[in-house]
Amino acid sequence: MAAWGERLAGVRGVLLDISGVLYDGGEDGGSPIPGSVEAVARLKRSRLKVRFCTNESQKSRGNLVGLLRHLGFDISEGEVTAPAPAASLILKERGLRPHLLVHDGVRSEFDQNDTSNPNCVVIADAGEAFSYQNMNKAFQVLMELENPVLISLGKGRYYKETSGLMLDVGAYTKALEYACGVEAEVVGKPSPEYFRSALKEMAVEAHEAVMIGDDIVGDVGGAQSCGMRALQVRTGKFRPSDERHPEVKADGYVDNLAQAVDLLLQHADK
Known about the structure:
This protein has helices spanning 4-8, 36-45, 61-70, 83-94, 132-143, 169-180, 192-202, 216-225, 257-267; strands at 13-16, 23-24, 31-32, 49-53, 80-81, 98-101, 120-123, 150-152, 158-161, 164-167, 185-186, 209-213, 229-233, 252-254. With 270 residues, the protein is α/β, with parallel strands linked by helices. Strand 4, helix 3 (61-70) and strand 5 (80-81) form a beta-alpha-beta unit.
């Protein structure tokens, strides 16, 4: 692998995943990953542009930012690219009326969308709402449509909370895809459109940006497919086997966000 100076030279913008990189969630709100609060502060004091790019779909963007600020992070709502607000805009643009299989915490993001007589299904990380009854209702809505549309807010396999690994929305999306014979449209990582929207907000070209995440496929693979560089942290959902993934290899592996920021501030301007 090339030296860090070669791998990080010319970086102008940094995209940060949130869960598993900044903090681990939990029933008590979660806790910051050691060193991450100061690492974000150091990045924001630097000349690098910073944007937070998350697949969080259990909390509204406002509630997520409120939690992160409570944990000590310097972050504003306008700095966060999240799938629920993006999906709401897509629904409006396409005249889609969603049946929502989502967590109550994110339902407010769809307050401006017409949900009567649904002509699509939006699925997110619904947590305890992933009951047979609710999954079956979403299945029935899709099967009754001549041209079924399934929109998934991400397709992660699992994520990490303070209590351990948790099953993510991707598994439930796959179940509906299989049962209904449809392919979900993904709003969120690893969708190329999602990464491009974050880059546009930063006014940075893909080759000038690096993604820092804990998901080898969604964060690293998704970013690299858009022409970005990507580092994987060994926190959050990281598993040692990620470093031997058969299809995706990060541009570098770091112990945590603090180490990633050390390297970026040392090499990015060169």
